[in-house]
Specification:
With 475 residues, the protein is of the alpha/beta class. It has helices at residues 8-15, 19-41, 46-62, 64-76, 88-102, 113-118, 120-126, 136-144, 160-171, 182-199, 225-231, 249-264, 298-302, 317-321, 325-328, 339-350, 367-371, 378-391, 395-408, 411-432, 445-448, 461-469; strands spanning 81-85, 106-109, 130-133, 202-205, 209-211, 216-221, 235-241, 245-246, 271-275, 288-294. The chain has 2 domains: 5-300, NagB/RpiA/CoA transferase-like (Rossmann fold, 3-Layer(aba) Sandwich), CATH 3.40.50; 396-469, no CATH class. It is built from 22 helices and 10 strands. It has a 6-stranded parallel sheet with strand order 1-10-7-4-2-3, sandwiched between helices. A 4-stranded mixed sheet has the order 8-5-6-9, sandwiched between helices. A hairpin with a 4-residue loop joins strand 5 and strand 6 (216-221). Helix 2 (19-41) packs across helix 12 (249-264). The longest helix has 23 residues, at 19-41. The relative contact order is 0.13.
């Protein structure tokens, strides 16, 4: 299954016809969105909490270079090693080099979106290192040989019936009756995974937060796999995007309240695990700890007009509330980051030309910003991206848009255009007997390919105003 960000329209059209997908999305997104609202409303002042979280992330971005150096100093001071990776290829090479240095052959991996960016697992497999996804959703995706469709819930696109059939076919699970039992399937997967932790000599995680003042990496999970993947293997590698840093524990205390509430409707995730370095001689844990700080296009975003996009804490709330995502799911976006925030991040990280349709995959209803726990202005950035993309269109399109803008800024031309359009519509109605237009020539057929063009009013507002108010409608 290959993801292609420039094929959103084709992929979305196919997704809209998928009844199984529609069933899964209805079950998942609406319940998650309702849980978010309930959990946020439990707080004393949800909006104040959002703005406090926003402030924490924006302060972190303002001091990003210094905070990253502070992280490095604190972790290396406790025996950990910090590596810097410019892009995905460098991340993968660094991980492979660590595996070769410590003779690591098999690893267990907790959920990480940045390793999806770099395609780390298939890269390591091609070089003789097997990695097992241990998050239940990611494990299902790995068995299915597909991709996650959601930032938080990797198998948002799958029903429990689909997972049942997959386990029976690929893992030899005994078939269940109807209805299938999700708990029994979870226990089946758990028994498979538990044996693997003892065999692993490598554990890989991402990171939800990095706390600069103490050099602490944090992962927030709802399964014990995160702790098993980091405490049992002798080497732990945390791979984290540079934007995940926050200055202080007070900032973390704010964000760790908003992340679970916004993502799953929980007051806290079941496990909040903190890492500062290798275990040393004083406790259990890995013999070696590596933190890889990943750029992979983030510095370009940081230096652009879209810096605020890096404030995202990967809660997935904007996906759950988005009317577009609710209909087509994550795979239609053809990218690691789907939904509204993905429609912003993907063009910025991959290059606008490689994800041109995504900023237009939005109704601009504003639900994404309203749901965002750090109040990222997603609709504004989508509009700006649309403007940037249109500015790069061919000269004929540019001339047409300039002509359109000139006509709309001159009252006489505007009124003349209205009258001509009205006459043309009247002639169309007389010729076809239809009051709506179902077909327009390119490029206007982008509208009529999906919906009818409404009829023009028999009398314009300007004419009505002059007749009934006796004045100029423009004043």
């Amino acid at each position: 299954m290959e993801l292609k960000a420039n094929q959103f329209l084709q992929s979305a059209t196919i997704a809209l016809e998928d009844i199984q997908l529609k069933t899964a999305l209805d079950r998942g997104t609406r319940s998650a969105d309702k849980a978010r609202i309930t959990a946020m409303d439990e707080t004393t002042d949800p909006e104040a909490l959002r703005q406090q979280g926003r402030g924490a992330k924006l302060r972190a971005l303002a001091d990003l270079p210094d905070l990253l150096e502070q992280i490095e100093t604190n972790i290396t001071g406790r025996g950990g090693q910090v590596l810097w990776a410019l892009d995905g290829d460098e991340v993968n090479r660094q991980v492979l080099a660590i595996c070769r240095e410590h003779d690591l052959r098999f690893g267990v991996k907790s959920k990480s979106m940045v390793t999806e960016e770099t395609a780390l697992v298939p890269y390591l497999k091609a070089h003789g290192v097997e990695m097992l996804e241990t998050d239940l959703g990611e494990f299902v995706v790995q068995v299915d040989e597909s991709h996650p469709s959601h930032i938080v819930t990797p198998i948002m696109h799958m029903t429990k019936e689909k997972v049942h059939d997959l386990f029976v076919e690929k893992l030899g699970m005994e078939p269940m009756g109807d209805p299938v039992d999700p708990k029994a399937m979870t226990h089946f997967a758990q028994r498979l995974l538990r044996r693997k932790y003892l065999d692993a000599d490598l554990g890989i995680t991402g990171g939800n937060f990095m706390i600069a003042e103490t050099g602490t990496v944090v992962i927030c999970t709802n399964e014990g796999n995160g702790r098993l993947s980091t405490s049992l293997p002798r080497v732990h590698i945390a791979i984290v995007g540079i934007e995940k840093v926050v200055p202080t524990w007070e900032d973390f205390a704010t964000l760790v309240q908003t992340l679970p509430r916004a993502s799953t409707g929980q007051r806290m995730t079941v496990y909040t695990s903190l890492f500062n370095g290798p275990a040393g001689d004083e406790g259990d844990g890995p013999e070696h700890f590596y933190l890889i700080l990943v750029d992979n296009g983030r510095s370009n975003v940081y230096a652009s007009d879209y810096t605020e996009a890096l404030a995202c804490i990967r809660c997935g709330a904007c996906l759950n509330t988005c009317p577009v995502y609710q209909q087509v799911g994550g795979h239609a976006y053809g990218t690691v980051y789907p939904g509204p925030i993905g429609a912003v991040l993907t063009p910025l990280l991959m290059g606008k030309e490689n994800a041109a349709p995504l900023p237009f995959a939005s109704s601009l209803c504003g639900a994404c910003q309203a749901a965002c726990p750090v109040d990222i202005h997603i609709p504004d950035m989508l509009l700006k991206l649309r403007h940037d993309l249109q500015a790069e269109q061919d000269p004929v399109w540019q001339m047409g848009m300039k002509g359109f803008g000139f006509a709309f800024s001159h009252p006489l031309l505007f009124e003349a255009g209205l009258k001509l359009s009205g006459l043309a519509a009247q002639a169309y109605t007389e010729a076809t007997g239809q009051t709506t237009v179902d077909r327009l020539p390119p490029p206007l057929d982008g509208w009529t390919n999906s919906r009818d063009f409404p009829p023009f009013a028999s009398e314009s507002f300007h004419d009505w105003w002059r007749k009934n108010r006796g004045g100029d409608a423009g004043h």
